[in-house]
Design brief:
It contains 6 helices and 10 strands, in the order βββαββαβαααβαβββ. By secondary structure, the protein is an alpha/beta fold. The protein has a single domain, classed as 3-Layer(aba) Sandwich (Rossmann fold), CATH 3.40.50. A 6-stranded mixed beta sheet has the order 6-7-8-3-9-10, sandwiched between helices. It is globular and about 50 Å long.
């Protein structure tokens, strides 16, 4: 098993009101194995979302090295990183941010159009909705779907362009326990059947056992 992402001694600093530097990350090193579900856990303020933004090339570290799929991308330009995100990365956030005037199918299809998907968009959109168990809800508007169903549409949208890595930032925070378990089980099925590498942040201890590996952060440091 190879590593999809490796970060070495990642630090992220922000200027404080006192003119000093606040270190959100204080030298994090870890690997994200290919085709597995990795969970980043920690309380609010632990640095897990800051780390995920760096892993997903949404933010740059102040110091340290990022290796993505075997390539050192630390010093890549913003345009080069944007291209990697568009073609190889998918994102699911706590706020699903579906387009309210589009059906579930149209939301997924819109993501395919943005990604300039060259295959059969209709077939791929329906395939993704089937993967998350919502093919029978394809014609429903977001307002007609439950919170859990909306999050599943967001997952279908995020995987539509066949990314290598899916990042999910607190995707179950607004869901009840049973629905949260359903979402994480979908993630597991995606790793097993689609080969997608998934990185998820959560503070829910009950979801830890579903990950292939768990990293714990506290005050910007890795403690587990």
């Amino acid at each position: 098993m190879s590593d999809m992402i490796e970060v070495k001694d990642i630090k992220r600093g922000f200027p404080s009101a006192e003119g000093e530097t606040f270190w959100a990350l204080k030298g994090i090193s870890l690997t994200i194995p290919e085709g597995k579900l990795t969970i980043l856990r920690g309380r609010s303020g632990s640095g897990k979302t800051t780390l995920m933004n760096i892993l997903g090339l949404l933010d740059d570290p102040t110091e340290g090295t990022i290796i993505f799929d075997g390539t050192d991308v630390t010093n890549h330009s913003a345009l080069e990183k944007e291209k990697i995100r568009r073609q190889q990365i998918g994102f699911v956030f706590q706020s699903v941010a579906l387009i309210p005037m589009m059906t579930a199918f149209e939301n997924v299809d819109f993501a395919l159009r943005l990604a300039k998907y060259e295959g059969d968009r209709t077939e791929r959109a329906m395939e993704c909705l089937r993967l998350v168990g919502l093919a029978n809800r394809a014609d429903h508007m977001p307002a007609e779907l439950s919170g859990g169903e909306q999050q599943r549409v967001a997952i279908a949208r995020a995987i539509a362009h066949k990314p290598k890595v899916l990042f999910a930032d607190e995707p179950t925070a607004e869901l009840d326990t049973n629905t949260a378990l359903t979402v994480v089980k979908i993630f597991r099925e995606l790793t097993e059947h689609e080969g997608i590498t998934i990185v998820m942040t959560t503070h829910d201890v009950g979801l830890m056992e579903l990950g292939d590996q768990v990293y714990e952060l506290e005050d910007g440091e890795r403690i587990g």
